[in-house]
Amino acid sequence: MEILYTDGLDSRFLTLCRELDQDLNRAVGGVEQRDIYTPLNLTDASFSVVILMENGIPCACGSFKKYKEYTAEIKRIYTKSAYRGRGFATFVLAELEKLAVSEGYRELILETGRMLESAIALYQRLGYREIPNYGPYIDMPRSICFQKDL
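and the corresponding C-alpha cells:
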C-alpha cells in the first residue's frame, strides 16, 4: 500500500469524491436528497488530502480543511467498495489526525448522515464524540456531527 499526501485538486482524489457522491446518492435515494450538501462538499487546493493506493489504484481517501484557528473539519472519507472491510478508512483517519497535529490543529470536527450507520460506528470507535450540529449543518436534521481532541 502506498500513502499519498496531496491537496483537494488532485485528480485521483476528485475521482474518488465522485464515486463517494454516487454511493451516497444510492444510499439516500437519489441526488435530489443530497442537493443541499453539494456546495458543502466542494474541494480546493487548501484541503489536506490522504489517498491510499494499492497496486497503483486509488482505493481510499480522506481530507480536512481549516475550520477555525485550531480546528480542522474532516471531509470526504471514502473507501471504494472492493476495498472495504480491510481497515482503510481507519488508516486514512489516523493519517489525517497525524497530519492535522503536524499542521497545528488541536481538534477535528466532521459531519455525516444519520442514515450512514457504518460511518457513525467508525467515528465513535475511533474516539469521536457526538456534538451539536455546527455551521451549515445546524438546521439539517439528517446530519450528525462529531468532534475529537487531538
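(Above: one complete record from the training split.) The chain is about 30% helix and 35% strand.
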